[in-house]
Design goal:
Specifically catalyzes the dephosphorylation of 2-phosphoglycolate. Is involved in the dissimilation of the intracellular 2-phosphoglycolate formed during the DNA repair of 3'-phosphoglycolate ends, a major class of DNA lesions induced by oxidative stress. This is Phosphoglycolate phosphatase. It is built from ten helices and nine strands. It is an alpha/beta fold and 241 residues long. It folds into two domains: 158 residues, 3-Layer(aba) Sandwich (Rossmann fold); 65 residues, DNA polymerase, domain 1 (Orthogonal Bundle).
C-alpha cells in the first residue's frame, strides 16, 4: 500500500457512508434486529438506505416512524441504546469499500493530497470500519458528530475536520448526499458529489461543484474544481465520466 507523502497539494475531506463505503447491509441488519426485538416488521435494505445520513438517533427514529411508532423520548433513548449495542457487534461485517476506492486513495496520496473523514457516524464506529477495511493509513483524522460536538450539516464539522488534519492549500469535500452538499455550501468549501450513494434527490439539482459517477473519476472531478477561477461558489458545474 502506498503511504501519504509529506508534501501537500491540498486537503480532501470525505464523507464515509455512501461515499467511501457501502454500509447499508450492516445498518439495515441492525435495524431489523431492533425491530424484531420490538415485535415489528423488518425495515430492509431499500428502506434503510433512504434513512441514512443524519446519524443514528435519526436513523432509529425514522425506522420506528415507518412502523407507525410514535416517538417517546424515554423509550426512544432506550431504542437508540439497543441499536448501538447491536450495531457495535456487526459494524464492519458486511460493509465494504466501493469499487476503486483503495486504488484511487493511493493515487491521491501519491499526488500529495492530505485526507480526512467527516461523517455523521459516531467516531468509534467510523474508525473501526476504516481500520477493518485497511484504509486507516490514508486518514489521520476521522471525525464523527461526537468528535467536536456537532455534526453535518453544521459547517463546523467539516471545517474543524479540515483544521485537525492540518489543511494546507485548497480544501475540497467529497460526499454523496443532500446533507454533504448543504454542509459544503454552508462552509464555503467546494464539493465533488458521487452519484452512486444514498442521496434522496437528484444530486445535479443541488448544484455540487462537480458530479462523478465512479470513485475512479474523483481525480478528474478534483482537477475540474481546481481549474475553476472561483471554486466553491456553485457557478461552474461539471460531470465527469
Amino acid at each position: 500500500m502506498n503511504r501519504p507523502q509529506d508534501h501537500s497539494r491540498g486537503t480532501i475531506v470525505f464523507d464515509l457512508d455512501g461515499t467511501l463505503v457501502d454500509s447499508v447491509p450492516d445498518l439495515a441488519g441492525s435495524l431489523d434486529s431492533l425491530m424484531a426485538d420490538k415485535g415489528l416488521e423488518a425495515i430492509g435494505i431499500a428502506a434503510a438506505r433512504k434513512l441514512i445520513g443524519h446519524g443514528i438517533p435519526n436513523l432509529v427514529r425514522g425506522a420506528l416512524a415507518l412502523r407507525g411508532v410514535d416517538w417517546d423520548d424515554g423509550q426512544g433513548a432506550a431504542d437508540i441504546k439497543r441499536f448501538t449495542d447491536i450495531y457495535a457487534q456487526r459494524v464492519s461485517r458486511e460493509t465494504r469499500p466501493y469499487a476503486d476506492v483503495e486504488q484511487t486513495l493511493s493515487l491521491l496520496a501519491q499526488d500529495g493530497w492530505r485526507m480526512a473523514v467527516c461523517t455523521n457516524k459516531m467516531e468509534r464506529y467510523a474508525k473501526t470500519i476504516i481500520r477493518d477495511l485497511g484504509l486507516d493509513a490514508y486518514f489521520p483524522v476521522i471525525a464523527g458528530p461526537d468528535t467536536f460536538g456537532f455534526g453535518k450539516p453544521d459547517p463546523r464539522h467539516l471545517l474543524e475536520t479540515a483544521k485537525a488534519v492540518g489543511a494546507d492549500g485548497p480544501v475540497i469535500f467529497v460526499g454523496d448526499s443532500e446533507v454533504d452538499i448543504a454542509t459544503a455550501k454552508a462552509a464555503g468549501v467546494p464539493i465533488v458529489a458521487l452519484s452512486y450513494g444514498y442521496s434522496k434527490a437528484p444530486l445535479a439539482s443541488l448544484l455540487p461543484d462537480a458530479l462523478v459517477d465512479r470513485f475512479a473519476d474523483l481525480p478528474a472531478g478534483l482537477n475540474r474544481i481546481l481549474a475553476q477561477s472561483v471554486p466553491g461558489q456553485g457557478q461552474a458545474k461539471t460531470r465527469c465520466k
